[in-house]
Write a structure and sequence with these properties.
The complex is a heterodimer.
Chain A: E1 2-12, E2 19-30, E3 35-39, H1 46-54, E4 61-66, E5 69-70, H2 76-81, E6 84-87, H3 99-107, H4 113-122, H5 127-130, H6 141-155, E7 159-163, H7 173-186, E8 191-195, H8 199-202, E9 207-212, E10 215-221, H9 222-232, H10 237-242
Parallel strand pairs in A: 3-8, 3-9, 6-7, 7-8
Antiparallel strand pairs in A: 1-2, 1-4, 4-5, 9-10
Helix pairs in contact in A: 3-6, 4-6
Chain B: H1 3-13, E1 23-27, E2 30-35, E3 40-44, E4 50-55, E5 60-70, E6 76-85, E7 90-101, E8 107-117, E9 122-133, E10 138-140, E11 143-148, E12 153-162, E13 166-175, E14 180-189, E15 194-203, E16 208-218, E17 223-232, E18 236-246, E19 251-260, E20 265-274, H2 278-285, H3 291-302
Parallel strand pairs in B: 1-5, 4-6, 5-7, 6-8, 7-9, 8-10, 8-11, 9-12, 10-13, 11-13, 12-14, 13-15, 14-16, 15-17, 16-18, 17-19, 18-20
Antiparallel strand pairs in B: 1-2, 3-4
Helix pairs in contact in B: 2-3
The chains are: A alpha/beta, B mainly beta.
Chain lengths: 250, 304
């Protein structure tokens, strides 16, 4: 369904004028209803890759093919209308726009209250408390994150991109989050690309992709990749010194 | 009234037929229809330039409409409306002025509203301003004077969304002990329009409080100036907030002043001017909106 062919992205350092590679020669393919988790250290290019798929960032090299069509040059709006959805790592705040407005815009139609409520309930929010709340600084990071996920449910995606969906989410969290992902795949036939460091999210992936320094260093099924990932997660030197009993960090 | 006047009436006052309760409709510089109610008495001024409104103490739940419609080019209308609201009332007053100017002459309405609000009364005052028609100037200069007695509360919602070429809006308030005032201003200018708002709030009584919130959007070549001055003359609380979205080649000036004349006066001002945040646009693009649709949604939400 989605194919990334030799995607590269580089930026010019404003001070030195030297180009820095963020992504180099990244090739991936995503099948219908596939659940792919991209992981890797900070600065490895994961978020940039998600933005490139959504069209927010334009690659400096390579092609993006969706359902056999080259969409490399299409903008964000067009890709959204192809039902590619994107949940921001840090959800955007608005003044005056309410939760119900955002769900309506996501759905692309007037939303009956019960439908809007259903999406909010899915993400563990009591609809009566939130439906008319402004999406502003009065909402906590976790609340904004859940609303962000609800907009993707309302949108109805063929590919849902999640940039660190677990960040800021409390213990309601992983069980429900993974349940939502399962539902998106099973009930809505949506594929997903999720950027995550979380073991519990990695555990439900069909495919895990590891990025480091802007390149794919490993790709495979969960069973193939997870043992290796967990073995690598050794404590740092400080951890070894002060917590000698600590075997590994998860 | 013709269809232009009826449209204005619906836009500024929200009705398409004569409402229940007390009302006064002013059309092209003259009072054309009015009705008093049990609790609200309306008396036309002898000089024809406005009305005197007396609201009986204890009047609760009444809504009064006082729209002004001008659809004749060249009219310059100066009106004085005085409101005397008794003690322990809870009423809503819906004002509003719309000008439709298809002619070539300056058309202007200067409405001077003075409210004397009795002890422990609550008043919600809604004021909408609107202009339509051709290129000839449509000008609205409202002046609002507020006198709040002990324990009184007033909420003033003032909205100017489109079509007014120039406006100078002056609001002055004097608050006695434990009275509170909430002002919400929403303003949109475009083209070469100009808008100036000027607030002076005097917190004179112990425990008085004001919350003044202004949200505006300036598009095109338009110019806006926001001036607010809150004087804390005793133990009191004052907060003003001016939040503006600037677009195209518009200009916005915000001058919030807070002056504490008493050690227990607690006063805060906030002013923020900026373009629409890029990430807000991007978020709405990811929901399938175009750039223009995203901007419109953000502006509409901001001014809601």
């Amino acid at each position: 369904m989605l194919e990334l062919k030799n995607i590269s992205f580089s930026v010019e350092d404003e001070q030195t004028g030297v180009r820095k590679d963020i992504l180099t020669d990244v090739s991936l393919s995503l099948a219908e209803r596939e659940f792919m988790v991209i992981t890797g250290p900070n600065g490895s290019g994961k978020s940039t890759l998600a933005k490139i798929i959504m069209g927010i960032v334009k690659p400096t090299g390579g092609r993006i093919i969706f359902d056999g069509t080259d969409i490399t040059e299409t903008g964000v709006t067009e890709r959204a209308r192809m039902h590619i959805g994107y949940a921001f790592q840090q959800p955007v705040r608005f003044k005056g726009i309410c939760v119900t407005d955002l769900l309506r815009l996501a759905a692309g139609k007037e939303l009956p209250n019960d439908e809007a409520c259903r999406y909010l309930s899915e993400v563990g929010l009591c609809a009566a408390d939130y439906i008319n709340r402004e999406i502003n600084g009065s909402l906590s990071g976790g609340e904004l994150k859940r609303i962000e996920i609800a907009t993707l449910l309302a949108r109805g995606t063929r590919i849902a991109l999640f940039d660190e969906p677990e960040a800021g989410i409390d213990l309601w969290s992983f069980q429900n989050l993974t349940r939502i992902f399962e539902k998106m795949r099973n009930s809505h036939n949506s594929a997903a690309i999720i950027i995550s460091h979380q073991e519990r999210i990695l555990n439900i992936a069909d495919t895990i992709v590891m990025l480091a320094d802007g390149r794919i260093v490993k790709k495979g099924s969960c069973d193939e990749i997870m043992p290796e990932l967990l073995a690598q997660a050794e404590p740092c030197e400080i951890g070894k010194t002060f917590c000698p009993d600590l075997k590994r960090l998860t | 009234m013709n269809s232009n006047a009826e449209h204005i009436l619906e836009t500024v006052a929200g009705f398409s037929h004569i409402p229940d309760g007390a009302f006064n409709i002013r059309h092209n510089g003259k009072g054309v229809n009015m009705r008093s109610s049990v609790g609200i008495s309306i008396l036309p001024r002898k000089d024809g330039k406005g009305i005197t409104v007396k609201i009986r103490p204890g009047t609760v739940g009444e809504i009064m409409h006082i729209p002004v419609v001008i659809d004749q080019s060249g009219i310059i209308d100066l009106v004085y409306n005085d409101f005397f609201i008794g003690e322990d009332c809870d009423v809503e007053i819906i004002a509003g002025c719309g000008i439709h100017n298809d002619g070539v002459h300056l058309t202007q309405h200067d409405g001077i509203h003075t409210f004397h609000i009795g002890k422990n009364s609550r008043v919600r005052y809604v004021e909408k301003h609107y202009g339509s028609g051709g290129n000839a100037a449509k000008v609205l200069n409202p002046v609002t004077n507020l006198f709040l007695a002990e324990g009184a509360h007033m909420e003033m919602d003032t909205v100017q969304i489109e079509g007014v070429d120039a406006t100078k809006r002056v609001t002055k308030a004097n608050l006695l002990a434990n009275s509170t005032l909430v002002i919400k201003e929403k303003l949109l200018t475009s083209g070469k329009q100009t808008a100036a708002t000027d607030y002076e709030i005097n917190l004179n009584g112990k425990g008085a409080g004001v919350n003044l919130i202004s949200r505006s959007v300036a598009k095109g070549e338009s110019t806006q100036e926001f001036l607010s001055k809150i004087n804390g003359n005793t133990e009191c609380q004052g907060h003003s907030e001016c939040d503006a979205i600037i677009m195209d080649n518009a200009t916005v000036t915000a001058i919030p002043i807070v002056k504490a004349n008493h050690v227990d006066a607690s006063l805060i001002h906030e002013a923020a001017i900026g373009k629409i945040a890029g990430e807000q646009i991007t978020k709405l693009l990811t929901l399938g909106l175009t750039q223009e649709e995203a901007e419109a949604e953000i502006v509409n939400g901001f001014l809601r």
